[in-house]
Amino acid sequence: MLSFFVFIGLVCFMSGALSFCMKGGHFLMMLLSLEFITLSLYFIFYIYFYMFSCDYYFSMIFISMAVCEGAVGLSVLVSLIYSFGDDFFQSLNILW
């Protein structure tokens, strides 16, 4: 049963990574994809720590770092929209 939850976490991680690669031009979609990847990694860590009956201190540190990452990303998004008017990167489209 726990392997099913790990499989669900890996599917969520892969779908977040695919979404990150597909929507590379819009900064908001990139941030949402990164948050989804972080949430799936947190889920996998939580299942791993539950399986091996470890302490959950690392998962608390991980989720607090993810919150800080989200706050920094939103502040960059707000400054980008304030400066340019939208969140679309035209220069990143050359890479894909």
TrEMBL record:
Q: Which regions span the lipid bilayer?
A: 27-49, 56-82
Q: Which domain of life does this protein belong to? A: Eukaryota
List the catalytic activities from the record. a ubiquinone + NADH + 5 H(+)(in) = a ubiquinol + NAD(+) + 4 H(+)(out)
Amino-acid biosynthesis recorded as keyword = no
Instruction: Mention one GO molecular function.
Output: NADH dehydrogenase (ubiquinone) activity
Q: Which GO terms describe its cellular component?
A: membrane
Keyword Cytoplasm attributed: no
Query: Where, subcellularly, is it found?
Result: Membrane
Keywords noted in UniProt: Membrane, Mitochondrion, NAD, Signal, Translocase, Transmembrane, Transmembrane helix
Q: What is its main location?
A: membrane
Q: How does the record say this protein sits in the membrane?
A: Multi-pass membrane protein
Show the InterPro entries listed in the entry: NUOK/Mnh_C1-like (IPR039428)
* Signal peptide interval: 1-19
The record's comment on protein family reads: Belongs to the complex I subunit 4L family.
For this entry, the protein name equals: NADH-ubiquinone oxidoreductase chain 4L
Q: Which organism is it from?
A: Elateroidea sp. 6 KM-2017
